[in-house]
Design brief:
With 921 residues, this protein is mainly α. The strands form 2 sheets. Strands 2-3-4-1-5 form a 5-stranded parallel sheet, sandwiched between helices.
Length: 921
């Protein structure tokens, strides 16, 4: 083959991937416009990613041989003629500007001509809003004459302190895009997907749970700069915002570089603006007219213009949470307290029947009363019950934020002002959150004699249940409670339903699953019971049916549960059921069944993400533990075990703070399993021992004990302490666990090394007793391995991938590749291996890219030179021919060829041709 033929066969690798995350940011397009002689002006607020974008554009220009002249405008140099040019990083330019008394633009033009030779010069100016007028005039004039291309980045003028820029410079910069002599690019805030990509770029190889990622997104305000700093805080484990028992403006401590960045922005605010911004963070959002109680109209306009406040389409004014927190940190405590008191008094005076206080407003009003030590006198139109309800609402809001000491203080004050069943149950809840179970039970027992209505009874029993569930002797405590409830208002149907549900919770901790199913179905079917309690029972019914293999029917029952819990006729015992986790627990149950069926996991991921974002925005930390459990189920299904461990670690930490449903021991044992799959066996055993202790202390019951035993066996197998699985206990437990758990246990044994032939018959028998597509795929994989059917494995892998089980798809494709290779079908083996890599890439993202072409995917795994040499070798050229054609040494060709064969798993030149699909002809 001739040298020209070699050159014709050569395919250069794709250009280096330079990219910037975010809408409106297209560095490659901007670089192309600049190289074509067009100018570009980029506008974006502090932290919007201007520097990140500029760096990427510079990368493209540099790759094309057009290194730009980079200047920076500074507030200190704006008053100096040619300050930006005279203070450039190039000493030659500095000298040229500094030695000329009456400098002219031709000086800069001569410098650029000498530096850039034949290419069109590109001048990049960062923070162009701070340019001195003379530099701005030179640059814009030369740009208009076509002598250079300008790439300017600037903050929006309305966000700049007017004292920091020269109006003439701004006029010249705006003239560029107004007159059509430059393209204008406005940087938009990051989306959640954008933020996730940036987090990966800023912390490659790190695994952050979904709540942490949502927290970074929420508190960055869409700023890449703040995403970077918040990611750094997360890496230092300092971004666990819900762990801070401080009710600051946004409950977000601001430290380090973030504090420096934000305080730099806030220094231009007047004291009243600063204190008002801090207080606005406490209240969250206010209708525009009510915001005028904090700010003057001019202050509102100024803060809106500079981005410190936001105004929504429904006329609400809110603050950026981190700016509000920084404002609180910069304010004197006395000034902040005075501003809080002023707002609290105004909110209380303006509250009434036309508009009730929001939970955040109730906190501000309660803080106002607590700060002053005075409570408004009770008058005809201000009842004790009204003031008590403010304290109760404030207490609930503090509990959502894990601020338990303040919650307890507000609940105690509520009970002192007006002792009611509502204030008593809130006081009991805060005592429970503080770990004072006996005190909580004492408060509740004192109110038994005050029960006069079914609604009061329902409120008391649901609170009491939450206190009893985490107790070590919860079975006895729940049995006692059920007996008590039936005596409160004898014959009341609603309270009978509540008592039956307490009994259901008690027997649910035993191994009598038939009893659980029978009672849950009976409660659900009784239309005289409250829809809320029927909805809770329906969730248990769904889980039981799914465990028996009737996953479709179980999913329908849980969906019915969610409908009942949303029923307008259900008894609402607290405002908006703020501390009622039933609906969220039903969502967890639905997610578990979807995982077992292998359906709608992408829907689950979307809904979980939406719920997490809402909880983070509302600082509803009490719901984050359960949402982290759902996120762990999604990660497990996808095969992303590192993410599963991260989610369960955070779930455990959150249940340590708030766990009314007694989920902590279950999260701990799940965490132990995830650690074992990640190879951390010692930590897994320590976590399992901790889970066992927690389960005993919280009365987790027989099912939990069996789960602990199974997880211990799993850790032993994974760690190699047991060489082979003992199937006897697995088979013996099949009847008790049901077919779903039986399939899962057998499949785990297979994945841990048990031969496929040893488990396949029992696995197929149990899978046939379920209606789960996912479990069918599991059985088909093991049968295909038993039959050594590589083509069937390829088919099963694609089925796993179609439902989002990418980890299983990856493992099954690897099985297929191994069988294809063993049979000598190298092309099929390469294709299966590439599909395995493709599925593996989807485990973290949850999205499957376009199906890979085996040849192009194989080539993409090689460097440009390796691909070039491999292609020529596959076409029949000898190493010496290739070396002569490419002007390389034979040793260099041999080295590249060896690396290419190693990466592609090709034993010979012929195999290279098969994998790369090259026809010698």
């Amino acid at each position: 083959m001739s040298v020209s033929a070699v050159q014709g066969a050569r395919e250069l690798s794709a250009e280096e991937g330079l990219s910037v995350i975010g809408r409106g940011k297209h560095p490659k397009t901007i670089a192309r416009m600049l190289m074509e002689g067009r100018s570009v002006v980029v506008f974006g607020a502090l932290g919007s990613g201007k520097s990140h974008l500029a760096d990427a554009v510079t990368g493209y220009l540099r790759a094309d041989g057009s290194e730009p002249l980079r200047l920076r405008g500074t507030a200190s140099a704006r008053a100096t003629a040619l300050g930006a040019l005279g203070n450039s990083s190039d000493p030659v330019l500095n000298a040229a500007i500094g030695t000329i008394t009456h400098a002219r633009p031709s000086v800069l033009l001569d410098y650029l001509a000498a530096r850039f030779a034949s290419v069109t010069p590109v001048v990049q100016v960062d923070d162009a809003q701070f340019l001195d007028p003379q530099t701005a005039e030179w640059l814009t004039r030369l740009s208009a004459d076509g002598a250079l291309s300008l790439f300017l980045t600037s903050a929006p003028v309305n966000s700049i302190n007017p004292q920091d820029f020269d109006p003439e410079s701004i006029r010249l910069i705006n003239g560029l895009w107004i007159e059509g002599r430059a393209e204008r690019v406005d940087l938009e805030p990051l989306t959640m997907d954008d933020t996730d990509k940036l987090i990966v770029a800023f912390a490659p190889g790190q695994v952050f749970d979904a709540v942490t990622r949502a927290t970074i997104f929420e508190h960055s305000g869409g700023s890449p700069l703040l995403v970077r700093e918040l990611t750094a805080e997360a890496l230092r484990n300092r971004l666990v915002l819900e762990d801070h028992d401080v009710l600051s403006s946004g409950n977000n401590p601001v430290t380090g570089r973030i504090a420096d960045l934000l305080s730099h922005q806030l220094r231009s605010l007047s004291p009243s603006e600063l204190h008002g911004l801090a207080v606005m963070g406490k209240v969250g959002a206010l209708p525009y007219p009510r915001s005028l109680a904090i700010f003057s109209p001019n202050e509102v306009r100024s803060l809106l213009g500079r981005g410190f406040l936001r105004r929504t389409s429904d006329d609400l004014v809110s603050s950026h949470s981190l700016f509000a927190s920084a404002a609180a940190a910069m304010s004197e405590p006395a000034d902040l307290r005075d501003a809080t008191v002023r707002l609290g008094r105004i909110l209380w005076d303006e509250s009434g029947t036309d508009r009730a206080l929001t939970a955040n407003e109730a906190v501000v009003v309660a803080e106002c009363w607590a700060c002053t030590g005075t409570i408004p006198s009770i008058e005809a139109d201000v009842t004790a019950e009204g003031m008590s309800s403010v304290f109760v609402s404030a207490s609930r809001r503090c509990r959502e934020r894990y601020v338990f000491d303040m919650a307890h203080d507000f609940a105690r004050r509520a009970h002192e002002v007006s002792p009611t069943v509502s204030s008593a149950t809130e006081l009991a809840r805060t005592l429970t959150a503080l770990g004072r179970m006996d005190d909580a039970l004492q408060v509740l027992r004192e109110w038994e004699s005050h029960i006069s209505t079914a609604t009061d009874g329902i409120l008391l029993v649901r609170c009491w249940t939450g206190v009893a569930l985490p107790m070590r002797n919860n079975a006895a405590a729940l049995a006692d409670l059920a007996d008590r409830v039936r005596t409160w208002i004898p014959g009341n149907t609603l309270l009978e339903g509540e008592a039956d549900y307490v009994d259901l919770l008690r027997i649910n901790r035993s191994s009598c699953r038939d009893n659980v199913l029978a009672l849950s179905e009976a409660i659900t079917a009784n239309v005289e019971f409250d829809d809320g309690i029927r909805g809770r029972a329906a969730m248990h019914t769904g889980i039981e049916l799914a465990g028996r293999g009737e996953t479709e029917k179980g999913m329908a029952r849980v969906k019915a549960s969610l409908a009942l819990l949303a029923s307008p006729t259900r008894v609402r015992v607290v405002e908006q059921d703020m501390d009622d986790t039933s609906e969220l627990e039903s969502f967890v149950g639905l997610s578990i069944i979807r995982q077992v069926r292998g359906v709608d996991m992408d829907v689950t991921a979307t809904e979980a993400g939406h719920r997490i974002n809402q909880a983070v925005q509302a600082q509803d930390y009490a719901s984050l533990g359960l949402l982290s459990v759902v996120a762990s189920l999604i990660a497990n299904f996808r095969g992303d075990y590192a993410m599963e461990a991260a989610e369960l670690s955070k779930a455990e930490a959150r249940f340590q703070r708030s766990d009314p449903g007694a989920w902590l021991p279950w999260a701990q044992v799940m965490h132990a399993g995830a650690l074992a799959h990640g190879g951390s066996f010692d930590n897994a055993m320590r976590k399992l021992n901790q889970a066992q202790t927690t389960g005993i202390n919280r009365g987790a019951g027989d099912m939990f004990a069996r789960l602990v035993q199974r997880t211990e066996n799993e850790i032993a197998l994974l760690s190699g302490r047991v060489a082979q699985a003992d199937l006897t206990p697995v088979a013996a437990a099949a009847d008790a666990d049901g077919p779903v758990m039986h399939v899962q246990r057998l499949y785990e044994m297979f994945e841990l090394g048990e031969p496929a032939a040893a488990v396949v018959d029992a696995l197929e028998t149990s899978a046939a007793q379920t209606d789960s597509p996912y479990l069918d795929f599991v059985a088909e994989r093991v049968r295909a391995l038993t039959n050594q059917d590589a083509a069937k494995l390829d088919d099963v892998a694609s089925r796993f991938a179609s439902i989002g089980a990418f980890g299983q798809a990856c493992a099954t494709s690897e099985d297929a590749a191994s069988l294809h290779s063993h049979s000598g079908n190298r092309a099929a083996a390469a294709a299966s291996k590439l599909h395995a890599e493709h599925y593996g890439d989807a485990r973290r993202s949850g999205h499957l890219a376009a199906t890979p072409d085996p040849a192009s995917s194989a080539a993409n795994r090689l460097t440009g030179r390796e691909n070039e040499i491999a292609q020529l070798a596959a076409r029949g050229l000898s190493n010496r021919d290739i070396a002569r054609a490419l002007y390389l040494s034979v040793r260099t060709v041999e080295s590249h060829l060896y690396q290419a064969r190693l990466k592609l798993g090709a034993p010979s030149r012929r195999d290279l041709g098969v994998i790369l699909q090259i026809d010698k002809q």
